Amino acid sequence: MTETSSNPTEVDPVARELLQSVVDTARAIFGAEASSIFLLDEEADELVFQAVSGQGEDFLVGMRFPAGRGIAGWVASTGEPMVVDDLSRNGSFARDLAESTKYVPDSLMAAPLMHASGVLGVLEVLDPAPQARSSLGELDLLALFARQAATALRAVLDRRAALDRAAAAGSAEASAAARALAELDEAGRAAGLRVVDAVRELLLAR
């Protein structure tokens, strides 16, 4: 990515609040022990923990691992969701990576954060309730949630990038853009959280 301000791994407070809302909601909806979002750092070819709910939430944010490894790596590279009922029998599961997080799940669901520009990252739900992981319909709902969250995240990041470019250009509008930043950040946060709330209502009403 040429614009560092639009790099999804460089998360500002607005985007971080959105991502935390996503993992908190996903964990609650699927009755899971934990939920996390990894964002893809294309330059480093790594996935980065950016939001965690449940197990590991106190220390995992910022941890990185190779983008080509594990279930999250597979989902990021293929753009396809995955549900695994027994991770001990899955060849893509990287147990050593799980052990490094101090929590080794027995099962998980994962879906890509997809946008027109490609995969932004991965949403994972660890050890969801049995009824959640037993249905492909539930995986479809997780994938829908991830797509909507990615759209909201991309909108927040693009707003920030546009303002940063204007300020860096030193144009006559730069000072006005800087003054408007807080308002646009607020608007971005509100728009993103509205998406999360709408999807949460859809899932809880099913």
UniProtKB/TrEMBL annotation:
It comes from the Bacteria. Residues 14-163 form the GAF domain. Pfam families: GAF. This is GAF domain-containing protein. It comes from Kitasatospora atroaurantiaca.
